[in-house]
Please model this.
Amino acid sequence: MRPSPPSMFQPSSKKVLLSVLVGCFVIQSGLVYSDDTDIVLSADAVEGRKLFHEGSCQVCHQLWGQGGFLGPDLTNASSRVDETRLASLLTVGSGQMPAYAYADQEIQYIRSFLEEIDRPDVGRGQLRLGDPSTPVTPQAAFDAVVRASAPGDELEGFETFSSGICSACHFPFQSSTVGAPDLSTVTERLDVEDLIEVLKRGRPERGMPPPSPVLSDEQLDHLIKYLDWLYQNRSGLMAEWGDLQAGRSIDWRKLDWWEFR
Ligand code: HEC
Ligand code: HEC
Model:
């Protein structure tokens, strides 16, 4: 008898292939249906969001300005539309809004979804792209790199820096639109005395106000240690920062509009 040729379709390989496919499906479903950013929806609202996707509501309606323009933007609909009207819209429709004939429970889910997205602090048009735990913005990538490698005092300095009082104007490795320079080489330019002078008085005539609240001596010390550490480790940090962002730039033309949120 001739030995059967090796084939990827032997029963055991089939099993492997099948489990890989099932695994992919499970992961994909998880990604599609999980709410993967900081918008935490209740279980009801997640059901409502599913119905919203399945019903293609966004073909006619916008959320946070994204979607179709036949119907009104629904971002704040829950503040405008009372329960009775919503129930009527979602069952018998109105004008060009089709009759969906949803059951009470489904209407409740959609209501929860609309209620929970109706918040001023969401709706930044975030994109669902890749692994949500990986930082996307240059600032977030930089934060992650520094937090992973800065020693104690330097990290303290960074926390002060990134609490917003400095990072609002100074960006990582580039000067910002308000003219605040990249500070990763500042300890090469300024000695400790000059630095303390800037950090106490700012340079109000050139766009840097005196830091407020006033920095304590300890905060000053930590900030300066941080800036020096940044300078000493500049190239390594820059490389890691670049790696984190690699492949994460957005090709807008390749995105379907329903990937906006
Ligand atoms: C074919 C287009 C279309 C689709 C699809 C559609 N709608 Fe509408 N919707 C409209 C129009 C047009 C109106 C305005 C109706 C009116 O005022 O008489 C409307 C009104 C609404 C309103 C009231 C908004 C307000 O501010 O008064 C809500 C809420 C709503 N739709 C929810 C949904 C949901 C949820 C879905 C998906 C399950 C959906 N719509 C699908 C066209 C659509
Ligand atoms: C409102 C925006 C703004 C904020 C907030 C701000 N800066 Fe500045 N900073 C600037 C600008 C603009 C300059 C450039 C001034 C100039 O041209 O001399 C500057 C300059 C500096 C310099 C001198 C750089 C150099 O090369 O001479 C240092 C150091 C500095 N900032 C550190 C900080 C730190 C630390 C914080 C937080 C405590 C901070 N800045 C907060 C805008 C800001």
